[in-house]
What we know:
Elements: E1 2-6, H1 20-23, E2 27-30, H2 38-45, E3 50-53, H3 62-66, E4 73-76, H4 86-91, E5 95-98, H5 104-118, H6 121-130
Parallel strand pairs: 1-2, 1-3, 3-4, 4-5
Amino acid sequence: MKIGILDDYQNVALAMANWSNVMQHATVTAFNDHVSGEVALVERLLPFDVVCVMRERTALTRRVLSKLPQLKLIASTGPRNAAIDEDAAATLGIAVVGTRYLSSPTIELTWALTLAVAHNIVVEANAVRSGSWHP
Length: 135
């Protein structure tokens, strides 16, 4: 089995999870560059049974999917990915799965960062660490 990970521009996909069990049964290739042309994309994906997409950057259209006879599974980070033609995938017998998504961590982080900026937290914390802060 061959698994391709697309658009891993930070080279983190293989470090963010334990892939050892998967790699006992499959060859995993992570691509850190982006292929934009349809012909080049099909050429890249042709040997893969599974494609993992990390964002909505690569369009997996009906035309692209119809040219990938080995493809059996598309896995996406997040519950939905607008770049995947799910109807075409279903028609072609390609399963599409995604991860769950909890919005609360994002909301909480946004508020924490907002409060940090409003109250100068980073500057104050750095001053405490360097010993230059005096009450």
